[in-house]
Amino acid sequence: MSVAARSPAVRSVSLSRPWTARMGVPRVRMAVQSNLVSIAPMLTKLQRDCATPLSVLRHVADAMADDMRAGLAVDGGSDLKMILSYVDRLPTGNEKGLFYALDLGGTNFRVLRVQLGGKDERVIATEFDQVSIPQDLMFGTTEDLFNFIASGLAKFAQNEGGKFHLAQGRMREIGFTFSFPVKQTSIDAGILIKWTKGFAVSGTAGKDVVACLNEAMERQGLNMRVSALVNDTVGTLAGARYWDYDVMVAVILGTGTNACYMERVDVIPKLQGLKSTSGRTIVNTEWGAFSNGLPLTEYDREMDAESINPGEQIFEKTISGMYLGEIVRRVLVKMDEAGALFGECVPEKLSTPFVLGTPHISTMQQDNSKDLQAVGSILYDVAGVNSDLSARRIVVEVCDTVAKRGGRLAGAGIVGILQKMEEDSKGTISGKRTVVAMDGGLYEHYPQYRRYLQDAVTELLGSELSKNVVIEHSKDGSGIGAALLAATNSKYEH
Ligand code: BGC
Q1: Residue nearest atom 3 in ligand 1 by C-alpha distance
Q2: Span 61-83, pLDDT tens digits
């Protein structure tokens, strides 16, 4: 997420610059002032449209809880898919041996191995590798994408050694974190419903992604077995709960967003008699598809209409890392068109969709310098615009407005889940400590966003109850979590 703020190649047009008599009528000053006259109402409107007062937060939390219930009743019952994960046994700490994890969910994919030592030694060693996914593979064929993944895995597996030992006669087992909506049919199989987060790989939707991986591994001559297919939220929950038994919910706030939680099987009507030995199972809400009562703006609607999945993933498009920067960019373009925020005509760079990333808007909000130098540099380097101090201040306000709405709505979503759990099992949060394991670059690298999220949780729950709810950053927990679930679901005894 870090964006280097280079030294400013910025033409500064400061409003407070002293004017000499010889310069005559301060044209720049007049132009900027009149610009502000047309831009200020746009900013006010944006802030009004993005507002998340307590009443809006409450509505979102209630609607989230209602949609969860409707999605648990029957498939297609609400926007929330409420996918059954088939994870009803969580790691106990007794797991032993060497396990792999493969994590595909965003612009990178990761491979990881872990040597587990049972109750006493726990995690003896881990090693991982990360490869970024070339853009063309995100729009290519299923075979090409899975070939790329399998070859990365094969290379990584070749270098096994040191503290990592596979017990004799065993096959290497993998926990496969696949962070897209998948209809699980068992712990080790699931059909892709649709791609999200900008992926548009042809021919995968409707297919079992484990079968796709197995075929690619075969083509590579790689002899490994997927023993658990999990969403990244599920991996995060399993990984965090290995260390802390109070973890009940996991949330991802990164490129995309999602949440899962521990549910009682007897309150899942659509389970239709399927048994779970523990009486509980993890449900993957796929809350990115939530849409009920969100405060949306013209910028959100236009971004959605032009996206590769219009009408879908509306909560994700409002709160997650892939989109916040793009929403800000769209606001700035409109402000520039209407009020020449940066100059006469909108530069090409600024007109390029997704050129401004969420890491950029986060970095701009961290700029405490008097003249907002880092803001100026980013605007110049990334968007190709010159800015004066008043324009930079407006940009920061826009970033804050969009991040505030996102963080507060994410907080309301979390409270919605806790509310649903409390309604069915009194005492879930009112009587004890409950941990929400959180992962994702947006949460990790955007302090203001994090604070807004926490504020919303506290406002909704009240200061007493919110003390029971601990939001804990579980960095990269999903990889280890998936490997642990591969161990729990191993075909060999441990
Ligand atoms: C996917 C989820 C995933 C989330 C976070 C969303 O776009 O639909 O399955 O958990 O991103 O990675």
Answers
A1: 179
A2: 999 999 999 999 999 999 999 99
